[in-house]
Amino acid sequence: MYQSVILGSLLLATLYVLKRMRDPKLNMPPLVRYKFPIIGHTYIYLTNSEEFLKQCKKEYGEIFSLYLWGEVKTIVGKEHLQEVLKRDDSFDAGIAFERLLPLSVILKHLAKFQNSTKVLKEYVMNKLKTYTERMQKNLNFATQKYIGDCDEPKIISNVYDTMTKIICYPIADIFVGKELSQYEEIINTFSDFTIDAAKISIIPPVLDFIYPRLQYYINCIILKIYNPAVKHQRILIKHLKNQIYKRLQEKEKYGDSWKRPADFLQDLLEEESFDPNNINYAEIADKICLFIFVSIHTTSNSCTHVIMDLTSRPEYIQELYEEQLEVRKEADENGILPFEALNKMKKLDSFIRESLRLSESISTLPHVVTKDYTFANGLQVPKDRAVHLYTDDVYLDESLQGPNPKSFEPFRHLETNASATKIGKNFLLFGGGKHACPGRQLAINEVKFFLHNVILKYNLRTESGKIEGPKMIGPRKFPSEAGIVFEKRK
Ligand code: HEM
Ligand SMILES: *[C@@H]1O[C@H](CO)[C@@H](O)[C@H](O)[C@H]1NC(C)=O
Ligand SMILES: *[C@@H]1O[C@H](CO)[C@@H](O)[C@H](O)[C@H]1NC(C)=O
Description:
Radius of gyration: 24 Å
Structural class: alpha+beta
Largest sheet: 5 strands, mixed
Number of helices: 19
Bound molecules: protoporphyrin IX containing FE, 2-acetamido-2-deoxy-beta-D-glucopyranose
Cofactor: heme
Number of domains: 1
Helix content: 40-55%
């Protein structure tokens, strides 16, 4: 009985997909042929995406479709992927992301936070310079706490975990302020929220083989029953209540002589729509959770890639060390660098860009087509189709990357003056167009201040003595978990 229902559904789903693929009105990208019904290209895409996509592109051209997880998805090569990033009237990354992880179910007040990007820009990014000192103090403090003096060589494996903790300190300070960021509980919420929230997306979407997006609907139901973010929201709300009460009291008491805490939370409290007699703590917590979600994992992950590459290639460290010594001369008596010093870390910046360039996944940044779209070459994609960017195609292109695009050449970006935050045709880490990551300057500044300190403070080598490059899981790259040896510079 069950078997026939399942088989029947599979058959129906396949027919449905095939029917849609043959929509006669549109000039669709070619569908790469496949041997196994239902499975389609799923297996080869998961096990050998690098070679597979290269072969597909060679045979089928700039834009082609694959049959993955019971659904036709379109892969867009370097010639046309900027169209996906720039035409936000037709492509939406938010919807695609929501299908992977229903964040709107996890953060219930998100729908009311329509101006999040504007808020981030005005409350944080436009004031980055004023956060320079606190950012460095926090990074230096956390580095000391989690890596330490290392008078004796110290091995740290799974650098990502350590990096996540370190990155939480400056970000928590900027978002909830100096006082709250002293609480271990708050730091833990910052470091664990993303992983807890994203746990459900670890399940491969096997239910999609039965019916398109079935996995998404089931995940939404699971999250409604068990929301992994709730415990973090409770902790945040508890502390926010005390902190907001305290700030309102002190402001009342000291009036004009009150020293306003400069942080994101205070900016929220000064919004016109904020009503001290009717405070929606859950909404404030959700806003902070959204920024935790987009900032901590991304920054720690990138920073881990860079430090693994740096440690793996000791031949470049001396040159970077000399640059940092030079930059160091600008530090004040507390060892704090001025904001402008970031621009003088040119070699480090280029190293970071190179490391990030080669740590990007084979294909990334899915977008959903929101209305039928015709690419410049005439091929068309229907509404609702998922479109993936063929990132590797960009990174393997000599005209975009310079000679030997596959090899790690840390100073290749010095000649082109492309800084690590610069988006464009040859660098997709931060997306592009209107929706390009608005937090990228914050992320890169943190990575630079952190590495400045690390390069001056420690000798680094991999425990294995070998290059520990990114590890592939399916089409995605993750930083290696191999050990790094930190030892105090003598
Ligand atoms: C190395 C670290 C980071 C990486 C790799 C990264 C990457 C990205 C990417 C790929 C997007 C999507 C762009 C698109 O749709 O075209 C994005 C969006 C976004 N990022 Fe980042 N990001 C990083 C750090 C941060 C930080 C530190 C913050 C904030 C504090 C942040 C806030 C955001 C926000 C709010 C969006 C949504 C923008 C929109 O939809 O208009 N990101 N990021
Ligand atoms: C964002 O929206 C809120 C209302 O929900 C408003 O009070 C605030 O001023 C807006 N912020 C910006 C930077 O536009
Ligand atoms: C890079 O910057 C330097 C100095 O700022 C300038 O002389 C050079 O022409 C620039 N190169 C490119 C390719 O823009």
